[in-house]
Amino acid sequence: MQTYAVLGSGVTSHLDLVVGGLPLRLCSEDSELLSAATRRYDGFNATERTPFSIQVDRYHSPQGCGNEFLCEFEGARVAADASSAHFSGVQHEYALDSLLRMLLSWALLPDVGFLLHAATVLRNGKAYVFFGRSGAGKSTVATLSPLGSVLTDEISLLKRIDGQWHAFGTPFWGEFRAAGTNRSTPVAGMYRLSQSPDDRIEPLRPAELLKALLPCVLFFSARTADHERLLEILTLASREVAGYILQFRKAQTFWEVISS
Amino acid sequence: MMVAANGIWQKNPALAWREIENETVIISPAESVMHELNDTGSLLWRSIDGRRSAEDLAALLAEQYEVSARVALADTLELLDELSRRRLLITIESAPVEDAA
Questions:
Q1: Which of A30, A168, A205, B81 has a CB 3.0–4.6 Å from the CB of A184, allowing a cystine?
Q2: Distance CA A142, CA A176 (A)
Q3: Which of A207, A224, A239 is facing B99, going by the closest CB pair?
């Protein structure tokens, strides 16, 4: 971990992270913000060669840091190119967190990866990805799963490595209020959550899985080429990963229908 | 608006789309909206190339699905009208909808 957060104004320090195998370096003169980021992203620290460099500023300033990806969130702004980004107007750690999600959703495209509103639970060495919009039951699934088996309860990162899909933990919190785990595991299946009085499971065809995934994918680019790439990646995932609808009641018994 | 049988259409270049299992998923990045086409819609979508008229497209539909030319043309015009109203298609004489980027 490379963190030098207790420094005076005008001194740039940095925090090195790895999320989904993507090395990131947050650089800022704002020691308060970096300290908050250090706490928030604890467990995702790692130093890799040639990290993606992100300059983080509390105020807006003219910076020549690319315009391949541009996005705004409540007054904060991200501008990025293939190797670096500039976050400006970052008044607090929550804005930093939002911009980081936005950037990752775009920066993962070359690595055949994407972010998904999903809880991921590890079982017998495989990752079970439970996806759905807010209120679908992601946190319920996480709560009902054994301690230590939850990779993330809110935002999963899926990436194709050597022809196999892996789920990664992310530092983005849900109702669990605990950061995900920074590890990856091969994906066993993707399960569209639907709460029901009974536990039932129904397979999804690749086309059905693609259409179920799309509303749950985090993506913020407005460029057509980026959306084409995302569709290509999601189509690949839909063809290569088993997809299901999981009708479940709020009990651990849902594992029984998955196992069967 | 009702489209003309001799009209020429092309896909809006601002869209991203993908065909999977004879269905087509179309994304409109500017609006973050997803559209879906079934197998007949996908056949027409795939065949819209800026050269074929509605009549040409209807002939393809009639050949593939063994329906009468009259029914195929009516179905084709209805779909073209719907796609046009959703700004997924443009006539080749019209200016393309600008990419939001």
A1: A168
A2: 8
A3: A224
Q: What is the pLDDT of residues A66-117, one digit of tens each?
A: 789 999 999 999 999 998 999 999 999 999 999 999 999 999 999 999 999 9
Q: Which helix (H) or strand (E) holds A192?
A: strand A184-195
Are B101 and A224 an interchain contact pair (Cβ–Cβ within 8 Å)? Answer: yes
Place of tokens 């993330």: A152
Exposed / middle / buried, residue A138 (Cβ in 10 Å: 0-12, 13-18, 19+): buried
A203 CB near a chain B CB, below 8 Å? no
B60 part of contact set with chain A, CB < 8 Å: no
Cβ pairs A/B, distance under 8 A: 51
CA–CA distance from A13 to each of A185, A224, B33 (Å)? 33, 36, 41
Task: Provide the ipTM.
Answer: 0.85
The DSSP 8-state label assigned to residue B95 in this structure reads P
Residues 6 or more apart whose Cβ sits within 8 Å of residue A237: A114, A158, A160, A165, A190, A213
> A219: nearest CA in chain B?
B32
Count Cα atoms within 13 angstroms, Cβ side, for B78: 9
Angle ∠(A124,A127,A128) on CA atoms, nearest 5:
105
CA-based nearest residue in chain A for residue B17: A228
Residue entry with tokens 């690319």:
A66
Q: Using an 8 Å Cβ cutoff, are A113 and A157 in contact?
A: yes
H/E stretch holding A17? strand A13-19
Question: Rounded to whole angstroms, how far apart are CA atoms A163 and A107?
Answer: 20
> How does pLDDT run along chain B (101 residues), one tens digit per residue?
567 777 889 999 999 999 999 999 999 998 889 999 999 999 999 999 999 999 999 999 999 998 999 999 999 999 999 999 999 998 876 444 455 44
Residues of A with Cβ-Cβ distance to B24 under 8 angstroms: none
